[in-house]
Amino acid sequence: MEGSIANQILVFLICMYGGIFLGLFYDIYRVFRRVFKPKKRATYIEDALFWVICSLFVFSVIFLANYAELRFYTFLGFITGFYIYMRLFSYIFLRISVKMLRALKRGAMVFFRIVSYPFMSAYNGAVGGIIWVKNLLNFRKK
Fold first, then answer.
1. Are 58 and 121 in contact (CB under 8 A)?
2. C-alpha closest to that of 61 among 45, 83, 84, 82
3. In the prediction, which pLDDT does 48 show?
4. Most buried among 80, 89, 96, 109, by the most CB within 10 A?
5. What value does the mean pLDDT take over residues 95-106?
6. Are 31 and 98 in contact (CB under 8 A)?
7. What is the reported pLDDT for 22?
């Protein structure tokens, strides 16, 4: 039993880091859902996939840290880490992610406009020419 308290503290801290990672993963999932706005059926599938991945992660952390021995302090570590992440870092991460995605979206729109400009100009010119000829022919019929 030598070092059992130190070992328990280490396992607690490892589980706390695991909870922080779960909070980060949850925020990434929230940003993904805000950006892509999935349909109802896709949401069910994504939620199930999210929880399967989280469960596998929690199990692997507990297995690697404590040989899969379920103790109260392991769950307390995950809950504490998740809470710390949500209170300290979640708001900052969401703001930065939203700003980055908006900037990326604006950049993609500018790129699309630049690339599509010659095609749109040719299309508008062709349609304008067709309308002009049509109006010219309709004017002569009267």
1. no
2. 82
3. 94
4. 80
5. 87
6. yes
7. 96
> Which pLDDT does position 139 carry in this prediction?
65
How many C-beta atoms surround the C-beta of residue 43 within 10 A? 12
Q: What is the mean pLDDT of residues 37-62?
A: 92
CA pair distance 74, 17, nearest whole angstrom:
11
Length of the chain: 142
DSSP codes joined into one string, the chain: -TTHHHHHHHHHHHHHHHHHHHHHHHHHHHHHHHHH---HHHHHHHHHHHHHHHHHHHHHHHHHHHTT---HHHHHHHHHHHHHHHHHTHHHHHHHHHHHHHHHHHHHHHHHHHHHHHHHHHHHHHHHHHHHHHHHHHHHH-
Query: Is there a contact between 83 and 20 (Cβ–Cβ < 8 Å)?
Result: no
pLDDT band at 92 (very low <50, low <70, confident <90, very high): very high
Give the confidence band of 98 by pLDDT, cuts at 50, 70, 90: confident
CA–CA gap between residue 25 and residue 30 (Å, rounded): 9
